[in-house]
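Homework help board

Subject: predicted structure for assignment chain

Our instructor gave us this sequence and asked us to write out the predicted structure in token form, then describe one feature. I got the tokens but I'm not sure how to describe them. Can anyone check?
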Amino acid sequence: TNRPPLTSTRPPPTRTPRPRTNTDLCTLTSYDAILTDHRGNICVLAGRFYYNLNETNPVPRKAIAKWPGLPAKVDAGFTYRDSKTYFYKGDQYWKYSGLRLEQGYPRPLSQAFPGIPPSVDAILLAKSGGFHAFKGPQYWYYDIGKQKPVEWYYPKAIDDGLGGFPKKLDAALVTGEGRRFVFAGLRYLEVGDDNKVIGRMRDVRKDWFNCA
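My token output:
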């Protein structure tokens, strides 16, 4: 995929935009999750389908063919540092080793991530090894290493704790290179390891989907 610039002062590399079709990424008005899979491919999930942004011309493929047992319209997804991939939907989660659904899944979200609410909007991995879960105008932090319930002072308002973030997220992503992005509709921001915003809001379709 066309990698967004490190700062707002360096424009993305120019590529020839792809012609649109009725299944093209450029026709998407919404999506469910954006994540890096266990091989480092950046995937956009929308309904029953996913697009691999590392392909020259991403086409829709059935998500269940890549991740057996995965439901349509997931809430969020991420691949952890141990190459395990997690998907959340409602009050359940799915865990994959590579592309294989581990035995006994889906399981209740509360079993593995106590204190994280159901039906989250996005999950943003932190350099510390935990993650921030976003739902509406609020967020929670879960420490995967400690595996303890979320601290009592969560949730916090995004406006209070993460200044500059969109008031509501649709997805979040950490690339294989460790760059971190948050998405709100068809706009996105890059954020640093300290959750400080880098640059300005940019266009998802132009920078990630390679649309005209």
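Reply (TA_rk): Your tokens look well-formed. For the description, you could write something like this. Helices lie at 63-66, 109-112, 158-161, 204-207. That's the kind of observation they're looking for.
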